[in-house]
Amino acid sequence: MNQDYIKPDNWSIIEEGFDRESVKSSESLFSIGNGAMGQRANFEENYSGETFQGSYIAGIYYPDKTKVGWWKNGYPKYFAKVLNAPNWIGINIEINGEDFDLNSCTEVKNFRRELNMKEGWYHRSFQATLKNGTEVAVDIRRFLSLDLDEVGVINYEITPLNKDAKIIYKPYIDAGVTNEDANWEEKFWEPLDVKKSGNEAFVTAQTFKTHFKVTTFMQNTIWARGEKQNLSPTSVDTIADKILFYYDVIVAKGEKSGIQKIGGYTVSLNHADTISAAENIIQTALAKGYDQLLQDQIDAWAKIWEMSDITIDGDVKAQQGIRFNIFQLNQTYLGKDSRLNIGPKGFTGEKYGGSTYWDTEAYCIPFYMATKDQQVARNLLTYRYNQLDKAIENAKDNLGFTNGAALYPMVTMNGEECHNEWEITHEEIHRNGAIAFAIYNYYRFTGDYSYIPEKGLEVLIGIARFWHQRASFSANKNQYMILGVTGPNEYENNINNNFYTNYIAKWCIDYAYEQIQKVSLEYPSDHKRIMEKVKLSETELQEWNKVAGNMYFPRSEEMGIYLQQDGFLDKDLVRVKDLDRSQRPINQKWSWDRVLRSPYIKQADVLQCFYFFEDHFAKDELERNFDFYESFTVHESSLSPCVHSIQAALLDKMDMAYAFYLRTSRLDLDDYNKEVEEGCHITSMAGTWMSIVEGFGGMRVKNDALHFSPKIPKEWGGYSFKINFRNQILKIAVDHKETKLSLEGTKELTVYVNGAPVLVQPNN
Amino acid sequence: MNQDYIKPDNWSIIEEGFDRESVKSSESLFSIGNGAMGQRANFEENYSGETFQGSYIAGIYYPDKTKVGWWKNGYPKYFAKVLNAPNWIGINIEINGEDFDLNSCTEVKNFRRELNMKEGWYHRSFQATLKNGTEVAVDIRRFLSLDLDEVGVINYEITPLNKDAKIIYKPYIDAGVTNEDANWEEKFWEPLDVKKSGNEAFVTAQTFKTHFKVTTFMQNTIWARGEKQNLSPTSVDTIADKILFYYDVIVAKGEKSGIQKIGGYTVSLNHADTISAAENIIQTALAKGYDQLLQDQIDAWAKIWEMSDITIDGDVKAQQGIRFNIFQLNQTYLGKDSRLNIGPKGFTGEKYGGSTYWDTEAYCIPFYMATKDQQVARNLLTYRYNQLDKAIENAKDNLGFTNGAALYPMVTMNGEECHNEWEITHEEIHRNGAIAFAIYNYYRFTGDYSYIPEKGLEVLIGIARFWHQRASFSANKNQYMILGVTGPNEYENNINNNFYTNYIAKWCIDYAYEQIQKVSLEYPSDHKRIMEKVKLSETELQEWNKVAGNMYFPRSEEMGIYLQQDGFLDKDLVRVKDLDRSQRPINQKWSWDRVLRSPYIKQADVLQCFYFFEDHFAKDELERNFDFYESFTVHESSLSPCVHSIQAALLDKMDMAYAFYLRTSRLDLDDYNKEVEEGCHITSMAGTWMSIVEGFGGMRVKNDALHFSPKIPKEWGGYSFKINFRNQILKIAVDHKETKLSLEGTKELTVYVNGAPVLVQPNN
C-alpha cells in the first residue's frame, strides 16, 4: 500500500515527480480506453528503463496452446490470451544528436502526470536535461476518442530551454510487439502489409491462428513557430512489421515545436477492408482537427458523467476513488457490442487474459443496469445465451456431463473454456450460479421478463441440469452433496460442500423450476418451443427437486454459522488481526499449500451467498456469519471488500463499511495488494459502485420498487448518485440531515426510504 | 489389457508377428539397459511408422524451465527431464536402390522379437519383401554390455532370398535428437564436435544448461561371404551433429552379409576427455571381439540370476512375469554409483522424467537389500543423506519452513525439487515418511546400525522437524492435524488428515526421538557432533512429543476402520465391482474433478500404512480395512497391487493374492493400464518381488531374525527364492507339501517358519 503516490483531487489522477520505480504502476493507473481499445500509459518516446508495454483491442485474442506439466483429462486444448496490440503511440525523438530517453537524462524535474477523468484525457509534462546538456520542457496530451472509437490522438510538444535544438521526431507504428507474459517468448502477430502515403502509414498484421486482421495506422502533423509545418518525412525506415518516419525540425531556444499524431486500429471484426477503413477514419479525424476532437471527447465524457457520476462531499480521496472506478468501467465497456464483455483488467494489463469471468454477472451487471440503458445489461446476458451451446459442449466433452447440462467456462473469449488449472477450470463451478443469478437480477431490477422466455430459460435449464448431475448422494448423511469444488474463496481448492456453491446450486434448480412453470402458464408458445428443444420430462424435473430439496449445507449449530466448507473449523483459527503483518499479502509471502491450509479467506464466500440472497436470512444470522468470516478474510481478491462494505453498512458497522469502501475504491490508487503494475482491477470497480449505492445508500429492489436505507460515513458531508430505474432517472442525495430524491422526466415514482413509501414527483 | 501379445516362456519375452499398432509397446517391453545406459527397442534401420525413439544415459538430465498457467509461490524454477540421448544404434539400409523400411515393405513375415533375460540380449528376425521385389531375411542381435557399461553391440545380418542384392549399410550416430514429450519442441543437445577415423566416428555434444558432455561413438565392421571384410566407408555424410558412413556390399542370393556395430557413450560425469575415453573403450571392445563380448554378457547375467532369480513351477506366465521384473530392475540399477537412483520408467521411456521418487525407499530398497550386497542399499540411503542440505533448503526457500526442517523433493535429479504441480510438489509430503522408514527398514534388515549415527540420524531429525512444523493444532478437536495434503492415493488432492500421512508423521517423530536417545547412549561422540550441528534443544524435543503424542487419526468407530481422510464416507460409495467396466481406467475416461470426487483409490493408501506398520495393528483390523478399501481401489498406479497382494496372502485370501500377483508381475507384459507404450513400470517391479517374498513367502524380519509363513497359490507347483540376510545366502523353496531351506557358506542360521524356530545348517 502506498497512500502518498497519487495526489488527492476531485476529478483527476495526478502523479508528481519522476520515480523509475513507479513507472510500471503509473502505466497501469494512467491507462486510457474507449470501450473498443485501450492502452497503458507507456511513454511515446523511447524509454530504456523498466516498463510494461501494453495496448489492447477489444475482442482480439490468441488461443495459446495449453502447456502443463502433466496433462489431466478435461483440460481445454488452448487458453486464450489478450494480445499486446501493435504500437501506434511510438514517437522516438532525437535532440541535438542524442536519443531522448527519460531513463538516461541527467535531470528530470517537474515531472507530472494527470489523467483528467472529467474530460477523458491523459497529460504528461516535465523538464529534462539530456546528457548532451540540452534542457527541454515537454508537454504531451493523449486521448482515445469516444466518438471515433478507432482513433487516438497525441499532441507532443517540446521547448528547448537553454539552447537551440535540432529535433528529429520519429513517429512509428510497429506490429513487432510481444506480450509481457514471461513464460512464452513467441510473437503473435504475422505482418501482412506495410504502406505509406505522405504523412500517413499503415501496418497490417493478423494474429496467428485466430486470424484477426488489424491495420494499425498513423498520420503525423508537425508544428513549429506557432503554426502547422507543411513537412513530409525527410526519411522513412520500413521493415516487415514496422514503419518509422523522420521529421527534422530546427527550434530556437525558448520556442515550442511539436507533433500531432493521429493513430489507432481498424479491425476485421468490423471492416472487410481494414486499410481503406483506416484511410477513411484518418480523413474523418483530420477534418475535425485536434481541437474539435478534444472538444468532442470532453462532451462525450460529460454525457457519461451526467448519468453515472457519484459525488462525495468533504472527502477528496473517497471522491477521487469512486470517480476513478466509474471512469475505468466506462473506459472498458460501453455496452455497444454484444460480442464484447468485461475483462478483469480491462485494457490496463494482460493478466487474466482479458477474458470473461463470473465477475461480469456477479459484480458488473448491477452497475451497468443502473447507469446505462437496460439494453446494455441485456447485451451482457445475451453474450452468455449466445454461448450456451458451447457451455453444453464444455460440460459434455471436457467433463463428461450428459443431457444438455451446461457448464459455462470459468474463463472465456468466445464461449469455450480457455483456462487450464483443474482447481479453477474443473472445480470453480459456482460461476454457473452467478450466470443464473444475473438473469434473476436483471428481471428483478428492470422488470423486463421477456428475456426469460426468449433466451434466459434455456440457460437456466442447462445450468439446473448441470447442478442436478453434479451433486452426489451421501448415504452417510442421507443428503445430496457437492464434492470437490473451489468456491469464490480461491484460497481453498478441491473442498467438499462449499456453502456458497451448494446454496446457489439449490437456488438455481429451484429458480429454473419456477420459471419453467411461469413460462408454461404465461408464455405457452415459448414454453413449447423450448421444451421441444431441450426435451425435459416430468421425471427429470422430479429428480431435480429431489436434489434441490435435500441439499446438505455445512453448519455449526453451536456457533450459529454456516461453514464455508466441511472441516473449516478444524483449521488453526488464528484471526487476521493476530497474524503478523509481515506475512501479508499471504499470496505473495506464502507457498500455495500454506495458503490453502490456513483459515484465511481471499474473498467473500459464505458472505457472498448472504449478499446474493439477503432476504433468505435473518439479520442476526448475517451478523454472526459476518463477524466470524470477516475476521479471517484477507481481501486479497479485489472482489472482496465491496461485499463486506455493503454488509457492514447494513449491520450499522459504519466505520468498517467506510474502511472497506476506501479499500475497494482506492485499491489500485493506493496499491493495497502491491500489484497495480500488472494492471487495474476493473471488474471489482463495479463493486465499489455497489458499496455506495447498495451499501451506504442501502438500495434494494423489492416487489418492483426501489428501496433505500441511506447511511452516511461520518467522514463525509454528503453524497449523491443517480439510478436509471425502469427508464426513470432518480437522483438520491444524502447528507447527515436528510435524503433528497429527485426525478427526471414527467412520471412520478414511489420509492421506499427506510421502509416508508415516498412519492417522488418529477422535476419538470 | 492384452493377454495374447507376449508369448509365454520361462526365460524370454517373445513377440511373434509384425503389428504396426504394437511397435511402440514392444519398443518399451524389449528395452535393454545395463545400469549406466539403456534404450527402447527401436529398430536400427529407418522406420517411417509410429515409433517412440528413446535412448537414455544414467545421470544425464535437463532442467527445463517451469511453465505453468499461473505461477504459484513455492514452485521450483525448473523441472528436470530425462533426455533422449544421441542415437548410436542407427543403421540405415539400402537394398537394390530402395530404402529398407518395414513400414513400406509389401510383406513382412515370421517377424519375431526375443528378449533373452537369462543371457541379457535382444534379438529380432523376420523376412520382408521390399517394394522393388527383393526378399530378404534379416537377423539382428543387440546387447548393452554389463562388463563394459559404456558399450553396446549390434550384429545385423541380411540374406537376400530371391535375387542378388546390392546392399548399402549406412550406420550413423546422431545427436540431433529430440524428446518424445509433445509439449516442447526444443532441442536439448548442443553439438560440439564430429570426428571420424577409419571405421570409427565420434559425435560430441553437450546438454544445454547442465553441460553434461557426451561423446557418442560407433565402430563398424562389415561381414560378407562368411568373413570379415576389410572395408572402409565408401562415402561419409557429416553435419554438425550427425555422421553417417556408407558401406557398399554386393551379396548373392542366399548369401548372408552383415554389419557389426559397436557403439555407446562416454560421458563427462566419468571422463575428463570423453573422446579419448571413447577411443579407448572401442579398442577394449574390439580386442575382445563380438563372441567374447556376448559370452561375457551371458556370464554376467548368470551371476545376477544366481542370486536374484525366483523360480515358479507349473505357471509359465507367472514365471515369465517375475523374471521380467527382476531382469528390468537389474537393467536399471546395479548399485555401483551412489550418484544414481531408480527412475520409475528406468531406461524405457521419458515419463516421470527419469527422476527419483519415493518409489525407491518404499518399494525398491527391500529388493536390493535382499538380492545384493548390503552396500547397494546403503548407497541408496546415502543418496538422500547427500541431499539433506537441499531438502532443508527446499523446505525453507520454497515452502517457508525454518530451523533445519527438511522436506525431500517429490521428484529430483540432484536433490532439488523439480516438479511443479502444487498438489504433488507441495502436498505429497508423505515422501518424507518413506525416506525415514527406509532408514529403519535398512537397520531392521541388515542389522547395520552404524548408518544411523554416521548419517541417518541427521536425516531423521530434519524430517521430524518438518512434521512437527507441518502439523497444526485444531482447537475444535483438541488434537494435531495435518491439513492440505495429497496422500499415496493421488486420486485425492488437498485433503485433510490423510491417515497414512498423519500416521507416518507421528512415527517419524517418535522414531527420530528414540534414535536420538539411542545414539546419545551408544555413540556419544556422534551424538555430540550431530547436536552441535543441528542445535536441538530439550524444549524442541518436548514440542515434537506434544505433536506426535496427540495426533489425530480419522476413523469410523462404527465400521472399525481408519478413514483415508476426513470426509471419505461422504462420497457416493459405489464399489469398483459395481462401476461400469467401460469407465475404466478412470484416469483415461474421466476428467480430473470426477476422479477426485469419486471414491476410487489409485493405489494403496490406508493399506500402505498397514503394510509399513503391520505389527502396530491387529489382524482383524487389517482385514476390516482391507475389505473396505480394496473394494474401492482401481489399482491405476503400478505401485498398488503388490501391497494388496501381500496383504491378501496374509489374510489367507490366496485367490485374490494370486490375481494381484499376476497383475503386478505382468502389468507391462499384459498392458493392464493401456500405457506400456510410454515405458515400463520399473519401480513397481520391486513390488512384484515383494509379492512373492513377503506375500507368498511371508518373509518378515523381527528381532534380528528372518521369519517365513509360506503359502502357495494353487496354480503353482512350487517356487523358490534366495535372500541375502546379513551376508548369509538363504534359499527358500516352497511347494504344496513343504518348505525347504538351504544355506550357502559355513555358518548356521536360525529362522522362523510359521513362528517356530528352524536351525538351518549350511550346505557345505
TrEMBL record, chains A, B:
InterPro entries per the UniProt record, alphabetical: 6-hairpin_glycosidase_sf, 6hp_glycosidase-like_sf, Gal_mutarotase_sf_dom, GH65_N, Glyco_hydro_65_C, Glyco_hydro_65_M, Glyco_hydro_65_N, Malt_Pase/Glycosyl_Hdrlase
Domain Glycoside hydrolase family 65 C-terminal, first and last residues per copy: 699-759
EC number: 2.4.1.8
Keyword Transferase: yes
Pfam families the record matches: Glyco_hydro_65C, Glyco_hydro_65m, Glyco_hydro_65N
EC supergroup of this enzyme: transferase
Keywords from the UniProt entry: Glycosyltransferase, Transferase
Domain Glycoside hydrolase family 65 N-terminal span(s) in chain numbering: 14-268
Residue ranges of domain Glycoside hydrolase family 65 central catalytic in the record: 323-690
Keyword Thylakoid: no
GO MF, one annotated term: maltose phosphorylase activity
Matches recorded under NCBIfam families: PRK13807.1 (NF010380)
Family: Belongs to the glycosyl hydrolase 65 family.
Protein name per UniProt: Maltose phosphorylase
Species of provenance: Flavobacterium granuli
